[in-house]
Amino acid sequence: MAIGEHRPTQLVIDRQALRQNIHAEVERLTPGCDLFMVVKANGYGHGAVQVAQAAKDAGARGFCVAILDEALELRAAGFNEPILILGVTSPADAPLMAKEHISATVAAMDWLTEAESYLNLAGTPAPLRVHLGLDTGMGRIGFRNAPDLVAAVDYLTSHATEFEFEGVFTHFSTADDPDDTYFKQQFAKWQTLTKALPRRPRYVHVSNSATSLWHAACNDNLVRYGVAGYGLNPSGTAIQEPFHLQPALSLTSELVYTKRLAAGESVSYGATYTAKEAEWVGTVPIGYADGYERRLQGFHVLVDGQPCEIIGRVCMDQLMVRLPHNCPRGTKVTLIGKDGDQEITLQDVATYCGTIHYEIACGFTSRLPRRYIH
Ligand SMILES: *Cc1c(COP(=O)(O)O)cnc(C)c1O
Predict the structure, then answer these.
(1) So where's the catalytic machinery, residue-wise (predicted)?
(2) H-type helices in the chain, by residue range?
(3) Is the CB of 357 under 6 A from ligand 1?
(4) Catalytic residue among 40, 155, 230, 352
(5) CB of 209 closer than 6 A to ligand 1?
């Protein structure tokens, strides 16, 4: 997709905010506990390489991604830190991961036996670093009982040319919930499974942002820090954050066209909005093709710092807002972020759309240019 460099609509990413959110967490960790910044999905829409650099500057010791291509993007950008792929990869890619010193999440024994044959075919460029994933109640990927886990560790031990047992981890499904009943059950299962381990690998980890913010006692020696690094509260609004999180992302544009509607005239597809009286209307060059959702009809943006309602349907590339008075073409529009004493947060947008800020942030498409400040 072409990047809209010649359109006044952009995502602005504040690197100082990223560094501040990440450094504040690094400072809270007990000595010996590392922070890996989670930069999957293009750094939650913020730009993976730029976020990785800010995280490294703020004290992150490594990175987590979801898929192999995201890990390769970081290697191509020159990052030599540990990188863990959190999702399931193809055993056929084991030699590539080994060569690039990228750590794989392994969730089943048959993956190891298959990967072993690929590694031997390729002449095992280096041992493949493996983190065993444990399913303690997330129900997504991972070993589910002690005998299977022990068999996998024994296999890694007896195939030390091909594999290095580097880590073991689990993922909580309710760490962002004020009710910790299920969290405690998962942690108990984690303790039972890890007690069965024949040996302890370099990294033992359970914590995403929510766990590290609100259940830091469980951290062990690594946290996988994601959404909070971007300045977003993992719980939405359910639990107060332990230190100030500074949102790093803003979305801004400009009015490209304004007009005065007469009473009875309509706006946008379906003519769902009709002016009751004469009013000023501005057009903003952003739409659902940019990830600004069609469901946002009736929500608002800030025009020159003043909240203005989005009227009529959000189109693919444009939307219309009702203005308090005539505003010149080029007037600043803030769709996410602060202008004066007014602010629209990603959380506000997510709440209006009936979803979570994660989904809005990583839904911004590549047509939006990302500009980096500070
Ligand atoms: C995405 C992810 C994280 C990061 O989660 P946040 O809520 O963004 O901190 C950590 N661990 C795993 C396994 C993940 O998939």
Answers:
(1) 40 (proton acceptor), 269 (proton acceptor)
(2) 15-28, 40-44, 48-57, 68-76, 94-99, 109-121, 146-158, 181-195, 209-214, 346-353, 357-363
(3) no
(4) 40
(5) yes
Listing DSSP states for 265-323 in one string gives -EESGGG-EE-SS-EEEEEES--GGGT--GGGTT-EEEETTEEEEEES---SS-EEEEE
Band (125; pLDDT cuts 50, 70, 90): confident
Task: For a ligand 1 pocket test, name from 22, 36, 37, 38 the mutation site with the most ligand atoms within 8 angstroms of its C-beta.
Answer: 38
Asked if residue 140 belongs to a known ligand binding site, the reply is yes
For residue 223, the CA-to-ligand 1 centroid distance in Å is: 10
Range 59-83 average pLDDT: 98
Over residues 137-191, the pLDDT tens digits come to 999 999 999 999 999 999 999 999 999 999 999 999 999 999 999 999 999 999 9
Q: Which domains does the chain have, with CATH numbers?
A: 15-230 (3.20.20.10), 249-344 (2.40.37.10)
Which residues are 12's β-sheet partners? 250, 371
Active site residue 269: yes
Indicate the pTM of the whole model.
Answer: 0.96
Catalytic annotation on 276? Answer: no
The answer to the question of whether 316 is labelled as a binding residue is yes
Closest CA to 156 of 199, 189, 95, 214: 199
